[in-house]
Amino acid sequence: MPQHRREWFTPALILLLLCFSGEVLAAWLWRWQEGVSSVSIAPPLLLAWLLSRRAGSWLAATAGAAFGIGLSLSVLQSLPLTEVLPLAIGLPLPPLALAWLLRHEGALRWPPSSFGRGARLLVAIGFALPALQVIWLYTWASHAGSSYRREDLLGLLLTHCAGYLLLVPIAMSALAGVAVPRWPRVARDLSVALLLALVPGWLWSPAAPIVLPSALMTIATTPLLLWTLVRFGLGGACTALLACAVMGLSYSLLGGGPFGGMGGSSAMLSMQAWICAVAGALWLVSVMVEQHRAASRRLREAYAQLSALTGRVLIVQEEERTRIARELHDDINQSLAALSIRLSYLKRGLDDSQRVAAQELLQDLHKVSNDIRSLSHGLHPAMLRFTGLASALTAFCQSHAQRSTLRIQCEVAPPEGLDDASELSLFRIVQEAVNNVEKHAHAREVWVLLRSLANECVLSVEDDGIGLPRSDPGAPFGLGVISMGERARLLGGQLVVEPRQGGGTRVEVRFPCPGGRKTDH
Fold first, then answer.
1. Angle ∠(108,111,114) on CA atoms, nearest 5
2. Residue 245 buriedness (CB in 10 A; 0-12 / 13-18 / 19+)
3. What's the helix, strand, coil split of the chain in %, to 5?
4. Running DSSP on this structure, what letter comes out for residue 441?
5. Could you tell me how far CA 411 lies from the centroid of its own chain?
6. How many angstroms separate the most distant Cα atoms in the chain?
7. Which residues lie across from 411 on neighbouring strands?
8. Where are the domains of the chain?
């Protein structure tokens, strides 16, 4: 078969089979429920197909749906196909018109992403389409010499409303394709759903030992519907509501359910009205849930972009520090060394008083040179590259303790397999934490500890200072702590800044050990 004929024939055949089967099932439910319809099936399936497929297959699908509906009516009512075909042709036209209108306005998006669009779609699908189809059924019946009672028309309207509100989301979810979860997750979800479904199933049963008012019985489905809405989306919630609808309509025939006391067709109509109202509420709540999820996705994407940008800034910062340290060491410090040599040479030709002044200048020059060398090593610790993280951290703690009044105890046992970037991040975290202690903590002693636990490495910097400020515990940290947090994230871990037992502050980073293997206890 040629490709263009296959593209036309396939949707027509699928919709013919779906609509024929749907009408047969609806007729079976009609007989089982003693002449009361529950949901319309064929037109909602057609609408879901049109909303989820490209426009090129719409006419073929509509033709297949019309023929399937006509064929089912001919078989079920023992009428010639030519007699029921006009009715069957008119029923698929409103779904086709709505799908074309949504596609033309660019609003064909499922699920709806805004509350206004969701409300308009709810009115169009849940009320306008059913009303048009009931008008068409009434017109066709009047032309054929029969008529509907007002109660029958209301029942037809509620039947089509329930069909569209329930089956369109279910079919859209199925046609969109949902990732199949693993069996343990499926078993857990089914267990929770069954447990939640036991509540209305027990309360609605005519044999229930407790007879509650209808208002309390109708809200018994709320936990089940809300859980399935959040867990599986609108399609899952409508599936659960459909199961509750079948159960409620069946119990209504037996004198049970939320509206069993009304009896007869009044109970069925009340049950259908409740189904439509709950389905409409689920549609609107699903829009808000979808908006929340979309906002969460955007927030996660923005955070990921910010984290990537911060990581790049840290890399550029290290590159710039390396460049500045190299210029300080190779250019400026070399120039100072040359000046020191020249000053030492000139000092020999001076008298005693001038020689003393030159010696003082020479000492100041040596001090400036040492300060620049320390600054250069702080900007780019060359020892880290040549001797490793343990030696670099030990040397940093010793030199810092010599320049300040802090007593720093350093116990460093880095795990094997750390790359250069990870070692640099750990060094910078310790450097920033110790500098913060010196500036703000008013501490006397600092403990730096790096150890490996089972599949986890821990770096901690503790002090016995004044601790975190208590005036505003929720105040944001400074740029230094933010920088430490980003470096911890680059390590695959997380930074924690908290009060230390006995006073002071504890800065801790836990991150996965390289290779995930146990190194120490």
1. 85
2. buried
3. 70, 5, 20
4. I
5. 41
6. 135
7. 449
8. 1-177, 386-521
Torsion sign over Cα 257, 263, 269, 274: negative
What are the CA-CA distances from residue 53 to residues 58, 231, 357, 397 (Å)?
8, 25, 92, 67
Cβ contacts of 235 within 8 Å, gap of 6 or more: 169, 170, 172, 173, 174
Q: Which fold has domain 386-521?
A: Heat Shock Protein 90 (3.30.565)
238-254 pLDDT per residue, tens: 988 988 888 888 787 77
pTM of the predicted structure, to 2 decimals: 0.67
Whether residue 86 has a cis bond before it, omega within 30° of 0: no
Instruction: Report the 10 Å Cβ neighbour count for 343.
Output: 14
Transcribe 189-253 into DSSP letters: HHHHHHHHHHHHHHHHSTT-SS---HHHHHGGGHHHHHHHHHHHHHHHHHHHHHHHHHHHHHHHH
Q: How crowded is the C-beta side of 169, counted as CA atoms within 13 Å?
A: 29
Task: List beta partners, residue 83.
Answer: none
385: which 2 tokens? Answer: 């590259």
pLDDT tens, 390-447?
Answer: 888 888 888 888 878 889 999 988 888 888 888 888 988 998 899 889 888 888 999 9
Per the CB < 8 A criterion, the answer to whether 350 and 358 are in contact is: yes
Cα angle for residues 113, 275, 288 (degrees, 5° grid): 20
